[in-house]
Design a protein that fits this description.
CATH class of the largest domain: Mainly Beta
CATH superfamily of the largest domain: Cupredoxins -  blue copper proteins
Number of strands: 9
Strand content: 25-35%
Bound molecules: copper (II) ion
Radius of gyration: 21 Å
CATH topology of the largest domain: Immunoglobulin-like
Helix content: 10-25%
Oligomer: single chain
Strand order of the largest sheet: 3-9-8-5-6
Largest sheet: 5 strands, mixed
Distance between the termini: 50 Å
Order of helices and strands: HEEEEEEEEE
Structural class: alpha+beta
Length: 131
């Protein structure tokens, strides 16, 4: 009897872990504690918390929209250094060296449209949409 109780706890703990790990994907729900434990958990869930803005030829390329608080990587494929600087100058500011340099910043947690520019090249503009 003790063995059974312990086994049940293991199953419940595993189910809890899986439901936490899969919070980004809309699950089918209904694990329930039955004779068959959840198995073959899908490992193909996309990471919605990250995004990449690529800079090339003095222009920003994607993403148009990200989720709140997403970790955004800036990848600079130009030879010159560029930045992704919010137009208000304080929400985010990331500088990436030329020649493949990268930088990271965290997207705002408040949904909205955030215009940004390059601090070095005033003709470079982009828009980050958080939703
Ligand atoms: Cu620039």
């Amino acid at each position: 009897m003790r063995k059974n109780a312990k086994a049940l706890m293991v199953v419940v703990t595993a189910a809890a872990l899986i439901s936490v790990a899969g919070c980004g994907a809309s699950g089918t729900g209904g694990y329930g504690v039955s004779s068959s434990p959840p198995s073959a958990a899908s490992s193909s869930a996309p990471q919605s918390g990250t995004a990449t803005i690529t800079i090339k030829d003095f222009g920003y390329q994607g993403p148009v929209s990200v989720s709140p608080g997403a970790k955004i990587t800036v990848k600079n494929e130009d030879a010159q250094a560029h930045t992704v600087t919010s137009d208000d100058g304080k929400t985010f500011d990331a500088a990436a060296d030329g020649g493949g340099g990268t930088a990271q910043f965290t997207a705002p947690t408040t949904p909205g449209s955030y215009a940004y520019h390059c601090a070095y090249h005033s003709n470079m503009h982009g828009m980050l949409v958080v939703k």
